[in-house]
Amino acid sequence: MSDKVYDVPAAWAHKAYVDDAKYKAMYEASVKDPNAFWAEHGKRIDWFHPFTKVKNTSYDPGHVSIKWFEDGITNVAYNCVDRHLAERGDQVAIIWEGDDPSESKKITYRELSAEVNKFANVLRNRGVEKGDRVTIYLPMIPEAAYAMLACARLGAVHSVVFGGFSPDSLSGRVADCASKCIITADEGLRGGRKVPLKANVDAAINLLPPDSVDHVVVVRRTGAAVDMTPGRDVYYDEAAALVTDECPAEHMNAEDPLFILYTSGSTGKPKGVLHTTGGYLVYASMTHQYVFDYHPGEIYWCTADVGWVTGHSYILYGPLANGATTLMFEGVPNYPSVSRFWEVIDKHQVNIFYTAPTAIRSLMQAGEEPVKKTSRSSLRLLGSVGEPINPEAWEWYHRVVGDNRCPIVDTWWQTETGGILITPLPGAIKLKPGSATLPFFGVVPEVVDAEGKVLSGACEGNLVIADSWPGQMRTVYGDHERFEQTYFSTYPGKYFTGDGCRRDADGYYWITGRVDDVINVSGHRMGTAEVESALVAHPKVSEAAVVGFPHDIKGQGIYAYVTLMAGEEPTEALRKELVAWVRKEIGPIASPDLIQFAPGLPKTRSGKIMRRILRKIAEDQFESLGDTSTLADPGVVDDLISNRQNKR
Ligand code: ATP
Ligand code: MG
After folding, report:
1. How many CA within 13 A on the CB side of residue 213?
2. Is the CB of 423 under 6 A from ligand 1?
């Protein structure tokens, strides 16, 4: 924990929307009378019929129900596009920067409107209606934004699946929400490499019962020849040539679903996190404006992929609802060189830059020169999201990237929260490297101990949120019981975040990481269970347990303990085969870094694997294994220690 404090720069205190006094007053008002506060801020979006009710939420065990602005009628695409046309039709809405630095494109709000309307008509011609689920499996190209907004325009519920997922993961996500339509591209392009998206879609559909998917819309990205199934598959450009650029925006209730996004699934199969229309958009747009102190005309860049919630809320919906210029990047930080981020900032004169600690850590390895040779003089604010940022990386980001000039907003939030919950506001809150600092308006964090006792003052424990905010997820798609079980049963009456945290004497929050077993590899989160089940699916594997271990570049690496079927030989060739197997099953992001063959795994008497012991071994902390007396067979631990794999 760093004890350094960075004051709010003088220029910021005057120019930002919110200064220290205003933050305190607004925060106070927001938690004292949420109805009055959100009645006012709910008006920041346009409503076809205004709401008369504001907050109607209950965290009561067995009756968890979350509704905001429930009688209001609006449309998210209307708010992100149409309402800006009169005032800023010719302003750039999206700057697209391709994987190859020679490719970029600017799309004005007027052009965006035409593209979204056309895309909506293409979908409508394929029978997509209000309430239908549409799976989007696209690279970071403008069509991803058009497709998402087209769904919102029609009232269809999109489920974006990250393009790095395998056919297996994709098919599970298509099946879970029974989507009949998939939007994809011939191929994706990342870091100069091609990703066979359409072939993956075909493979995914082959894993589903016949006739599960009626339509596949294929955007041409690389122009590669791909298999097209007649009657089912259509090229987007051919379909779009036949439609007009006018499609009415569906009237949506504030509580109608907007999208489903599957979390990485630490506790079994991935959860379909469901977000709805009104509260989500109010919260995403308000946080985008205040946290990034976004002022009209500024160029804003969030480097996330639209396959993650950060891409939903802070590339697309928040910025576009605010009439911002948002940059969308197809590539990766180190292609063609490790200066790419900084070159893009200079090329497009980016003012606000939002990325993840894993990217910062990997770029740090290359030293200062690739950064310092660029200007970056347009930058005024930096942001971080996805995992705790270690103070060393924070300082480097501040000093080297931001030239000691730009505040850093370390934003803590989750897929489930829809938007940022704990964060500095750059004109109001002093920064401490490694701390997400203080709650956003309307957010009531509490720290509880294992028994649920609310702790006060400086303390450490589990992070819960005591009351609802408009951007909160409404349910797990198709499984409300799982929603209640996962988030509201551990500490009845409160939303359990699953994260541990520390609160210091100034009331600042320091997130210490998740309480359960999710690993975060290069900013990509995955449940250990997902990797384990892939390993166990291999015919020679009988059992597997996966934990993270500290990895200099990736943040966390994947350490897999594998028990083989009786009679199978633990060879180097098999080790390689298993790594390739997981790559194929889940995707390259899930490749184990280290595999240890283990004749037995430490288990409780009830048969549960004790991951905390495996984690300690992977971390080289043999002396702090803790109590092993409850193990069914304590002897396995010695074997695990003596055969531990060396870190690369
Ligand atoms: P799953 O819920 O399936 O296990 P996940 O929690 O890894 O997946 P996300 O919703 O994308 O998926 O990530 C949210 C989590 O990321 C938070 O709960 C927290 O652990 C971590 N996180 C995000 N931002 C920050 C931050 N600024 N500081 C510390 N941790 C963060
Ligand atoms: Mg989570």
Report:
1. 28
2. no
Gap between the terminal Cα atoms of the chain: 27
Cβ pair 327, 299 in contact under 8 A = yes
Model's pTM, two decimal places?
A: 0.85
Amino acid in the structure at residue 61: P
Model confidence band, residue 168 (pLDDT cutoffs 50, 70, 90): confident
In 3D space, the residue among 326, 311, 354, 320 whose CA is nearest the CA of residue 160 turns out to be 311
Structure tokens at 472: 């909160």
Q: Confirm whether residue 386 is marked as ligand binding.
A: yes
C-alpha atoms less than 13 angstroms from C-alpha of 288 in its C-beta half-sphere: 33
| Index of the ligand 1 atom closest to the CA of residue 513 | 20
E strand segments, 186-235 = 188-190, 193-195, 215-219, 233-235
User: Rounded distance, CA 371 to CA 405, Å?
Assistant: 15
Query: Residue 587 corresponds to which tokens in the numbers above?
Result: 């995707």
Report the half-sphere exposure of 45 (CA within 13 A, side-chain side): 34
The reply to whether ipTM tops 0.90 is yes
Q: Tell me: the pLDDT tens digits for 375-417?
A: 999 999 999 998 888 888 999 999 999 999 999 999 999 999 9
CA distance 84 to 320: 9
Going along the chain from its start, the domains and CATH numbers come out as 10-84+91-435+452-502 (3.40.50.12780), 522-643 (3.30.300.30)
Ligand nearest to the CA of 515: 1
